[in-house]
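Kindly review both lines to help learners:
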Amino acid sequence: MCVEENQWVGTLTGLQSGLLLSPSPVNNQRLENYPYRKLIVPFGEVHSAETSVNHQTVTIQRISTNPFLHQYFVFIINDRLKILQSTDSPTGWLYLALLHAMTSHPLPDEYTEMTGMERAFQLLNSAGCWSDQPFDGLSLNILGQIGGISPNVDYYPKHITSMERIDWNIEGMPYSIQHFGYYLLAKRLIETSQRLNFMHSSSKFDEIPKIFDEKTTNESLLKKLYWDYRDSYNPLARLPAEIETDIHYHSEPYQSSLEHCPRVTNYNTVRLIDDLYKDGEVNLIDCSKQNWLPLSQWLNDDNRLKNVWIGLLKLTDRLKREALGTATDDIQSFEVLLDFLHYISDKCETKPFYLQMLKTALQMPDILSTSVDFPRFIRYSNIEEITFITERLNISSYYNSGEQRRAVAEIQNCFSRDSSYEDSNKLLNSNEVSRINQLLTNWQNNRKLRTFLELVQYRIFAVPIQQFNIKVLYYPQQFTVELSKDHYAIQLRLVNTPIDQELLSSAQQKFHYSNTDNFNNSSVSQKTIDDKNTFPQDIFTSAINEDNPVSEIANYFKNQLFQSWKKLLLDKQTLRENPSIEKITGVLNALRNESSKSWNELTKSITLSNEQLFETGLVLRITPPTLISLFQHKIANFNWTTDQHTLLGGILVNWTLEQQLERALHFAIHDKREDFKKEISNIPHINWIPSEHVPWLILELEMNMTIREIQIRVARHMMYPNEIINDNTVKSIVMQMNMGEGKTSVILPMLALSLSSSNSSLVRIIVLKSLFPTNYQSLKYKLGGLLNRRIFSFTCRRDMNFNYQQIQQVDNRLQQGLKNCDVILTSPEDILSFDLLTIDKCRRNEFDIGRSMLKIQRWLKTYARDVLDESDEILHVKYQLIYTVGGQTQVDAGAERWKTIQLILELVKKHAEEIAKRFSEEVCYKPTERKSAFPQLRLQSHHPFLSLCQKIANDWINTRNYRNEDKKIIVSFILETNSSADRLIDKFPPSDIQLFLIIRGLLCSEVLLVALKKRHRVNYGVNSNLSFNRLMAVPFRAKDVVADKTEFGHPDVALVLTHLSYYYSGLNNEQLTQCLNRLSEEETDPASIYDEWILYGKEDDIPTNIKQWKGVNIKDYQQRTCYLFPTLQYNILVINYFLNHFVFPREAKQFPHKLVASAWDLSSSARSKIITGFSGTNDTQLLLPVHIRQYDLPELEKTDAIVVNNLLQPENKSYQYFPVNASSNEILNLIVSYKERINVILDVGALFIDGTNRDIAIKWLDLSDKKMIDYTVYFDSDSIVVCDRQLHHHRFETSPASERLDRCVFYLDEIHTRGTDFKFPKGFRAAVTLGNGLTKDRFVQACMRMRKLGDGHSLTFWSSYEVHQQIIRLKRDRSLKNQDKNTDDFINLIDILRWVYENTIQSTWDGLHHWAAQSLSFQRKVAAFREIQWDDYEQLFSDAMMEELAKECLEPEIIELIHMYGACKVLQTVSEIHSARCQQTNYHLSTEICDPVLKRLQDYGGQKQRLSQLLDEEQQRELEQELEEERQLARPPPVEPCEPTLYEEIKRLCDINSKKMNLSQFPLVFQPLTFAFTDTTFYNDCQPNSWRQNLWVSTEFQRVILTKGESLNPFLRSPRWAVVYRNQHIIFISAYEANWLIHHLKSNKSSVTTLRLLLPRIKRIQSIFFNTPTLTIPPSIPPYNNTNIYCMPLEWLVQLFVFNGTLYFETINEQTAFCQCLGLCPKPRTQTEETAFEKGWIAVDGFVSRPKCRQHLRMNQVQFNSNPLKFVKHIIENRNNSHAAVTSHVGSIILNSLKLF
């Protein structure tokens, strides 16, 4: 394109901003109409200014604060249709309408032959501008500007609807084009878009322009004015019928109200000074010389009666004096004025008595004496203030009282003298003097006003008050609203004018008959085999191998390709001699000449006898868009004759033929031979008749394309399939058509147009979610213009939670869609979600909503005609949707579950490198830079997993305290599939069995294998979208494409993948801050936890300033960001800490039931209309539901072979592989440095995973040759974006890059290698990435983005290292089987295809299991809905029916570990598994479904086996939202504390001279230690008789609350103060008692009795204070203590450790004594102890129960007879408010039976 020298377009006159581009000439040749010229216009605020040439100048102001500053639009100039078109709907259409409106003129534009206003309304009324989705901010801004074109209107005064005020825009726009309808239409567009906003996910919609606020304009008046002026506009410039109908519907008959005319003529007396002039402000207006007309002036607010009454009195006085007692015209006029004011007094809320006073004054001989003056006509304030008011002076307190009194006296004197205050004594400052003088002036004026009013009032009241004696005769007016049917309309008088028969005959032949070859050249049919390969037999090694358990599927794919190849080899292609350019030009000129004559003939026949109507613009403009609209719709008041209809049809056909020839000439001139050949060989309308498919003809014309013969055949095949199988007509079918053949761009719009019927069929197009935005834009563009079909985007998610009103709105929109032949665009997820939401509403007993949704379901089953685009993907088994149902519950085993997973993953990390070295070809491994991080590990097969499991099991069991015999049983259970939990139940405690089950699930049930096979950011990851509000890992559809609103259904898969997600991605700064804050604020021993984190890493990796907790300042931003965060981001222990405290407790939940929907529901046969679909591949035939079949056109059965043959062309032979764990930058560098330039990256293998699409695209642009490449193109979400060298990012559609593809590089991420279409120039080469598990359908879809493959495009293949190893392995296996000794490792295309087909075969076999399971779920719902007759519209849905329906649809979710992993797992074939499941079902199964399913499993399932109870690990589900509701919680009542008591016996403890007390004799004061546990749950477990008898508590220590009946667990007093009484007894006392003893023991000289502090050791390095001599009271050191220092024996002390919840020991002796006390013998053990353990003397938890065994093991200090571990765990939890850490000394002993010292 180049800049047009002449920038005049012929429309948009006066527009100052814009750039007109035209096609660049080639060899000095330029075609007239093709390619289209383009106009680029920037976005901004559009303003108009009048010029001297009687036309406005329109400028676009681009304000820097505008968020859309860099937005611009590209408009296509269609010279044939004489219109400007936008490719961007609706925003571009709206902006174009705005430009037309602002540049409008009363006369038609030269180019469009209609006024800008008419074209603007034509655009705004078209479907392209209407949307059911909320408009974005840019569109709303444009609509606000459009609405602002209408003048602002209102009544005045506002409360009187009698007079109208119109504020015209004065920006140079003629008043005649400021249409009243712009505002109404723009507002309706917004309202329509907002009507269903609950169906769209945006949490915050853009703000609606303020202009549409009801307060800014009077909308009802605007409607009235529109209707008043409606017929002065051209019919094009009118509102849609629905708005006009709405105006009529809400208009009411007008009848003037009687309240405007009072019938009373006598009123109560009112005093002026008590009412009208009582107080407040008044602005007196002198109207004595004012003309009384116009009367409207007396309605203004300024002329309120209070302001003008004295002025009217002065006018009365003037008229009286001038009349000299005679009646004059002025007096009569004044009387009329008084009557008018009386007439409107009620409406103006004034008291008519004041008017009577004026009427009386008019009759008085003298109103006032000559000595009385009228008050000044000024503004008065506070008119009630007429005397001196001292308080209002506000003299500053700065002055003393004497000065204040003198000043006040002086001011009051001035008021009396009516003078100003001079301040002669200089008491006040100048400001105060000025303020006081203002007050004096106001008071003096008010006093004069009051004096005047009293005098006037006295004089008027002295005479009789005149009455309004004459009643106004009032006849209320009544108007009825004119109905539309009664409204006059201009009727064209169409005369049957003879039309040129030659032109008519030609038009009839073209319009009513199919076409023949335009050039009639000789043609020959011949086989085109020169570029065809022989059938690639070597691809299918699986089919050759009879021992292969999936050989049936392999043979299926082989036979399928073989049959397709036969078709290809037999294919004959008709070769025609291409016409010369001269001949094409001649035909084109002849067509143009005929079109011109026909158009003139048509316009003449229409306008004849109506010339004046057309010239004045009172009837429709005769333009192509207008007539085409009339052509396809029956418009009232415009009756076509048959000849006119035929002639226009012929013109349209001619235009499409002209367009084709123009395209062909364009290709010829530019030497695009292949494009020219393809274009000229396509004969238009050869197999269809234009008159039978007028919408198709218009589609061709508007889109400048020619529908090809094969596209017609495919469309008809999908409209009317007629396959017969087993004598039963198969209603629903899917078919294959090669990629790039126009399925989405051409056939889909054709089907939408032809299948729609206003009374029987509503087309519903179902597309992939990832392709939804592009399909939506494409359909709106193609169908929203001349064809005027609206696109209704139907979405549904569980979180929408429709209410009754919303469902009614959806129902109304569907009904409207059927009536208007709209098209529904939706996705499979949305349809399935609506199905499940219907059931869920019934389950929730929301019967009214459920009933309405069922009615919609019934209606859709009758009228919806579904068309599936990319049907193989839509009907894939992976599209299963699950609604979780019921209350959330914690996963079975709770925290133990994820902590065990963390332990197992730690062992995975330990052995990862060894496994990777041993199985280098089957493991993808990348070591970490930091010791504390988790390595990247991915398993590609089952073999390395078995070895890894064995190592994990051995390591784990060796850390456990089990006998060797038991270890064998446990290892067997967690590794072998044929073992069950039954043999464990009596041998091990339940908590241990639970642990075994978790590990068995990870290892034996292969949960860990499933997780380690997946790719982070490709198959799973954390959803970063804040609105999702979940932190656990979720399924990904493709690289960085989250499966919206879903999660993994299997709890352990979810937990493992969540760990791996955070291990690989690390914690972000916010998450690390959460961890550090919790560590600092809530942990009792933060230093020890932090030490664990730091010690877990390599010492050299830790900065010195953060090696210790005491050196950490979490408020120091620099330390956090530069040291802490980089060090801890990937630390496994820190990540585990975050997950354990912030993620899993909140999100690791399960649900009791689920609702399931799948592709079976999408293709259900319970509907009246068939379902059809198409795709570029057909590899999922075996996974299609049984009631939909693959049925290809015979001529398209060669499609598979064509694709594979094109791939096998020699130009595609290049293959490369990347090094192990190559980064995105490394991959890009290799691609850029490749020997041949690569223009496109098709990342179907998802190898670019360490960066966003934007990052990768920018990096590629940076590496590209600046002389050759200017742009990079990529997908941002689902929008195509262009980035230039200046790093500006724009939409592709409006970017110059769209015209310069040869200057672009394209990066297509995995999900967008399907369904996207770029017209890459010839010679483009693409790099196709090969990733693990790539199947044929995805591979082929990606490769076929290069539409000219085999004819100008080429491919290079780039695999990851792991894929390379897989390809090599398959190649070697084939060589071994064929005994080929000359094999090498060179990879060719056959090897790549072999690998792709192997993946496809395996994927198909895996899918059969899920496919069969989904058939059972589908049949469950079919059985549940058996009572509902979908074709019976009279059937009522009762509450009981809906409740039962929902109950029967529910499926159980397996929750308990014992049920998930406890059973023996048997290897079975998929058919055996399905047969068993069928037998276990408790609902009716349909033989029509069961038999075909079982047969397919038997035919293709083969002998390959799988575990019969292996769960579906990643079925996606939508979560049931937790409702936030206000609850009245019944909290426990407050308790009453005990009053402290100090017993005498406590005091006697200080007396060292008295006789020692026998503590047992004072039970009211002293009790054994276990008395502390009275009324707690610990008492029964504490074994009261097992504690030393010299350990006591005071009864006051135990007493905390008086309230009875409460558990004392929360009130258990911490043991802090203890009295060592006579160095023999330890007595724990309360703080109150200790406080008294401290003062009295201090004076003791002997330390035989001391008060001591005992602290629990909850940190590694911490004193317990108890045996510290200096801290006893009195101190146990000289001179206080003359005796030996008393130190508590270790045997006593360890029982106190148990009592106070100590976690750490200071010495190994403490540890030994602790274990002896509890009767424990933990590991590590001596040989004697190990022997005892094997004999069963020592339990798994280390407890030795039998006395003889204790004696043998020399355990002489055991205090507890029964196992105390339960009690110890609970008391530690109570004392420390947390579980014992397994890393603590005590925690390790009681939890792992392991001594750490």
Remarks:
- DSSP finds 58 helices and 51 strands in the chain.
- The CA atoms of residues 1550 and 1641 lie 6 Å apart.
